Amino acid sequence: MTDFQTLRAGEARIAVRKDLRVPMRDGVELAADAYHQPDQTPRPALIAMSAYGKELQALALTTPPQRRPSPMWDGCIEAGDIARVVREGYVHVIGDMRGTGDSGGEMIGNYNFGGVAQGQDLYDLVEWVAAQPWCDGNVGMIGISYFGSMQVLAAAERPPHLKAIFVSGGHFDFYETTYHGGVMWFMPRAAREGRGGDSSIAHTNVRSRMQQLHSPEVLAKLVEQRLQDPDVAAWPNLVHVLKYPKNREFWFDIIMNPFDGDWYEERNPITLASNIDIPVYLQIDQGRGWTVDGHIELFDVLGGPKKLDIGSYPPMQSRPWIEEHDTMFRWYEYWLKGVENGIMDEPAVSVFVEGTREVLTAAQWPPREIAYRPLYLRPRRKLSFEPEYMGAEYAAPDGFYQAPLTVTDKVEVLDWSSEPFEAPTEMIGSGAAHLFVEIDQPDTNFILRLWDEAPGGKRQLITTGYLKASQRELDEARSSEGDPHHPHTRAVPVEPGKIEEYVLRLYPFAATFRPGHRLVVELSNDEPLADAHNALLPPDAFHLPVGRPVTHKTYRDAAHPSRLVLPFTRASAE
């Protein structure tokens, strides 16, 4: 007698055990589905857990994968290719985190905070799956983005039967997931509210951590303080969420916490990752700077067997997610099935280099020795390896006035271009931008984008940098040339009319500029409303615009050496 039903996916037959009830140590039950081949043979299991709803993930059996900018692309279908997982000889377990979907219990706050830690639930789930007659006791995990972060939280709890994980596109430093350089990013809104085409969290019983911590009277005062930020006050969705906080509890918590600190660190998988001792494979594609940064940081923290694979642009995989499965199954074939396939004989780090499209391998990141070199902003919107020798009275600043998007749909952008490169020029690593700027308001955003421009004008984004002017303070202990870090723990208003040096962190990248190509850097305080790169991202993947009119003057003279500091590989730097 069987306790499963059989589905058909193409020519294949798949058995599914629907709505399994998995007991947690506190008595709450989580809901999960288990997909496998129709016979009763015990197999390794790959677990996918999220707050997005297991029924949404089941669309992988019926919905062809979509790529951006398809309007059918749904960023929450991230658990993997069910039919292939089953075909490869695994049980694909897809479940709902507590307080979401068909699971019981209550989820309080984002990620790993409040109520019961999500890692604790994942520990109990792993051990329950391992004990089932349809599992052979070997358990891994699967899924990108939110699912990837859940893998790290699970591994940090050290469940005995979790043998390895494969993380693609995870979000780790939770502050950096929600505020880039202190500038609010709207993608978490999409994942929580379902805007921009995403299906969002399958809310059933979730609560705001801020509402749990503060009385209604205190919270009302904190909300009014947050609304003093003109950027927030000018954006209708944020005003709505702040005025009606029970409408979108998790997004409310993010809006109410614009500074880094304990609230984010307790949600930060990197904080917990030093406890991980099982094998970890990390995969991320270029063009998603904050997650490239997070994968590298996580790789450096991990102490057990590990690999880092940085893939090619463009930045967003299909939904349902099907990419990276070939590598993932090699990983699990070795660690869960004991097949000697040579994957552990290969170098730990693999990096795709844009431009030449070659793959570099090494034991560490970056894969080649680098030397930082400055490229200076010069008059006539040029970039040069030589600094400006004239003073500000002769090298007048470049400037622009940006009106709020409440009154204009035009985003002003300054750009500076290098001369065409005469030889292939390779850069790999993080970078910095030192900008000497005068503004006439207490705050603004700096949004910097670096492009590789071909002779015919075709461009590809190489990396980005963000900084909210009031959060310009540097963490001197962590910062080094080409690798600045900001604590983002408070706001220090800018003195209008004063020239300040702002240091932006440029997210890690790997690119070779071919002969005839130029490096172009763009500076604005809002993002262009549409361009070739933004079309590859979900509609909500932009940053909170500045809500006040601001005049910017960028000085690049002998006394104010505005410059990029870039990671040239040794051969290109000589």
Structural class: alpha+beta
Rg from alpha-carbon coordinates: 24 Å
Number of domains: 2
CATH architecture of the largest domain: 3-Layer(aba) Sandwich
Shape: globular
List segments where confidence is low: pLDDT < 50 over at least 5 consecutive residues.
none
| CATH H-tier superfamily of the largest domain | Alpha/Beta hydrolase fold, catalytic domain
Distance between the termini: 72 Å
Number of strands: 26
**CATH class assignment of the largest domain:** Alpha Beta
Protein name: CocE/NonD family hydrolase
InterPro entries: AB_hydrolase_fold (IPR029058), CocE/Ser_esterase (IPR005674), Galactose-bd-like_sf (IPR008979), Xaa-Pro-like_dom (IPR000383), Xaa-Pro_dipept_C (IPR013736), Xaa-Pro_dipeptidyl-ppase/CocE (IPR050585)
Pfam families: Peptidase_S15, PepX_C
GO molecular function: dipeptidyl-peptidase activity
